[in-house]
Amino acid sequence: MAKSSKSIVVVSDVHDGGSTAVCSEHPYNSEMDSEYKPNKLQRVLNRAWYDCIDDLEQKPTLLVVNGEPCDGGNPKQNGQQSWSTNVYDQLNDAAILLGAIPYDNLMFVRGSKYHVQVEGTNFEEITAKQLNADAYRAYGGSGKTDYQANIEVHGKIFNVTHHVGYARWWQYRPTSIAQEMVKMHFDHAKRKFHTDAMIRSHVHYYCQVKFLNTIALTTPAWKLPDPFMYRNGLPMMPDVGLIEAIIDQPSLIERPIIIKGKKGVPIMARIFSI
Length: 274
Description:
8-stranded mixed β-sheet, 274 residues, 5-stranded mixed β-sheet, 5 helices, alpha/beta, disordered C terminus, globular
């Protein structure tokens, strides 16, 4: 890549606090007033987290946390699949993981209220302030988080929001994101506004589609199925990893780093350029 290239890295659905999600090496559980000992699965995910960081092509110009750095209180399961139901324990641990990623700028986009909000308190706002994220509000107001972000990096426009329709079967996964991309394309055509990349999360799998000169994708996650998810049959196994997009004018290279294999070795999937 040219020295003048810039990049954006998107990480989402960290779900720190869940017993099947990534966490730091030494999480602190304030409820027990002791250090939590990560299980084998969490230790594998922790190594994978740092493998992904090591595999980045360059230091990100912008890191986007696209929702749900913590798992929340998990009320539907009465906190049974959490190493701590104290959300501040989860947020502090997520800050350790996110702080390990190098970046020049940092933005947070809000995720699902179930995981990141209790009454009027949005926990992503707390972590964004803790990590000194860039302040922005898509629709005005004050704060460091919102449900949508339109971001320009080195002349390329990224539309980022957390939610998108979910498909259990892989052959239907492109449908919802493709529909949203086409809708956005024609809406922006009326406004004479072009988006180069549309990024969504929430579904815990990587999927990529392209329409005209726009790329749309869903991001991997950092939580594997827990026992609760097995109650309705065999759950979908998520993709684990992050997305790196390198802007090397006039190209935008979308570079997913997906974890595969027992050793958790990151590999590069397809590379697309527009």
